[in-house]
UniProtKB/TrEMBL annotation:
Residues 462-471 have a biased composition (Polar residues). Belongs to the DEAD box helicase family. This is DEAD-box ATP-dependent RNA helicase RhpA. Residues 2-30 form the DEAD-box RNA helicase Q domain. Its EC number is 3.6.4.13. It comes from Bradyrhizobium oligotrophicum S58. The lineage of its organism: Bacteria, Pseudomonadati, Pseudomonadota, Alphaproteobacteria, Hyphomicrobiales. Transmembrane segments: none annotated. Keywords: ATP-binding, Cytoplasm, Helicase, Hydrolase, Nucleotide-binding.
Length: 471
């Protein structure tokens, strides 16, 4: 598949793609769009930043157009669910971008903003509704919305939607949907236990994994710095000054931690802003919009920004704290090196807990990350055995209470931990991963399945769309 023309998509869609400078389908698009166009259920797994959104949005829009009926009042033909308000807004923007020539009726149903406007938006009936599960159920329970006419269901970040934080809400929602529907699940990660849960909601799905599940994008130069806890704030400031940062996204485990990091960066003369669940939705939207435009260059976030968020020009992701769910690492670092770009991911690791999270991460992504030891001598013996620093660039190839998480409370809630398991041999800390064959070697060319995105430039109105999101 070399061109979007080969899909025979409606002209209005092809035109929008041209305007977006999409010339070549990415591997996940090439493999899933034709199947989804036939009406089959799909589970699509592909690395971060490789165009999964268009993989579901384009075939759905095409199929809507093939049978353009007027939606019944208080119903939606397409229901897309995602774990965060910001991601839902972004997905809606993508539908509106690809559907800009078809006068699409679409709306967003997310928490943290008044319901009245959403109630009014769904009243006449919609073609596309993008939602977070909690607010969607509120609308249903308030009789503002019926799910009986949904023809297409998408779970973006499907493994997250089916983990224990969201599964109860998702079950309630799915129980209200027609049995006859097309269901599309997408993510970069899919733990086995979750994949089994997914099966109950799918009908004879096509399973497409263009790269190994949970693999990280090769163009991300990943590295680990072992450091004392107390030295993390200074080291972060130092790194942000030394590194050629265009835009940096710093992840912390807690909301409080994010605020503390902002303060310490400001003290060091680095302007930064935080985004997390204790901030108002208005503030969250404004801050993310300012990060998109480049007005804010350092954004400190909890995991509400870990999944799906697509911001141009994020050159650096820093894990100020390591996540204890290894898949989260894959998603966090995937905020850089998107759409064929390059990126750097640096993880600050302190103490035995974070060392054990690191081992879980390395086991998941099947890469041993290069480590640098900046701990003071007194602290070294206490932690796990030091590993030799190594030259490895990038590599092989990313749970909490959901309603709270929709509210952005991502740092709280139950934690799923994949502990070292005797049956699975640990990756020796100092092992050099075998080099993977590279095809082409160019910036956007890579091994099978890894994105080969070719786009001359990002159209200006794309970013603007996102900033003009309602609420
Ligand atoms: N065929 C294409 N050509 C050029 N650019 C593309 C193409 N498909 C998608 N893109 C762009 O690539 C970027 C990443 O796409 P998208 O957000 O859909 O990735 P994703 O696979 O969903 O990543 P994540 O796993 O992080 O959610 C977006 O800016 C999108 O506009
Ligand atoms: Mg995505």
């Amino acid at each position: 598949m070399t061109s979007f023309q080969d899909f025979n998509l409606a002209d209005a869609l092809t035109r929008a793609l041209k305007e977006e400078n999409y010339t070549t389908p990415t591997p996940i698009q090439a493999q899933t769009i034709p199947i989804a166009l036939q009406g089959r259920d799909v589970v699509g797994i592909a690395q971060t930043g490789t165009g999964k959104t268009a993989s579901f949005a384009l075939p759905i829009l095409h199929r809507l157009l093939e049978n353009r009926i007027k939606p019944q009042p208080k119903t939606a033909r397409v229901l897309v669910l995602s774990p965060t308000r910001e991601l839902s807004g972004q997905i809606l923007d993508s539908f509106n971008t690809y559907g800009r020539h078809i006068r699409l009726s679409s709306a967003l149903a997310i928490g943290g903003v008044p319901m009245g406007r959403q109630v009014r938006a769904v009243m006449p009936g919609l073609e596309v509704l993008v939602a977070t599960p909690g607010r969607l159920l509120d609308l249903v329970q308030g009789n503002a919305l019926k799910l009986s006419h949904v023809e297409f269901l998408v779970l973006d970040e499907a493994d997250r939607m089916l983990d224990m934080g969201f599964i109860n809400d998702i079950r309630k929602i799915v129980a209200k949907l027609p049995i006859k529907r097309q269901t599309l699940f997408f993510s970069a990660t899919m733990p086995k236990d979750i994949a089994e849960l997914a099966d109950a909601m799918l009908r004879d799905p096509a399973r497409v994994a263009v790269t190994p599940v949970s693999s990280t994008v090769e163009r991300i130069a990943q590295r680990v710095i072992q450091v004392d806890h107390s030295a993390k704030p200074n080291l972060l400031a130092q790194l942000l000054k030394q590194e050629p940062v265009n835009r940096a996204l710093v992840f912390t485990r807690t909301k409080h931690g994010a605020d503390k990091v902002v303060k310490s960066l400001e003290k060091a003369g680095i302007p930064a802003q935080a985004i997390h669940g204790n901030k108002s939705q208005n503030h969250r939207e404004r801050t993310l919009a300012a990060f998109r435009t480049g007005e804010i260059r350092t954004l400190v976030a909890t995991d509400i920004a870990a999944r799906g968020i697509d911001v141009d020009g994020v050159s650096h992701v820093v894990n100020f704290d390591l996540p204890n769910v290894p898949e989260t690492y894959v998603h966090r670092i995937g905020r850089t090196a998107r759409a064929g770009a390059e990126g750097v991911a640096i993880s600050l690791v302190a103490g035995p807990d974070e060392m054990s999270y690191l081992r879980d991460i390395e086991r998941l992504i099947k890469v041993s990350l290069p480590r640098e030891d900046r701990r003071t001598p007194g602290h070294r013996e206490a932690a796990a055995p030091p590993a030799k620093p190594q030259q490895h660039r990038g590599g092989r190839p990313g749970m909490q209470n959901a309603r709270a998480n929709e509210g952005g409370n991502a740092a709280k809630g139950p934690r799923r931990r994949r502990r070292s398991n005797a049956k699975v041999p640990a990756l020796p800390g100092n092992r050099q991963e075998p080099q993977r064959p590279s095809q082409g070697g160019g910036k956007a060319g890579s091994i099978q399945g890894v994105a080969f995105l070719h786009r001359e430039g990002r159209p200006k109105n794309h970013a603007q769309n996102r900033n003009q999101r309602p609420n």
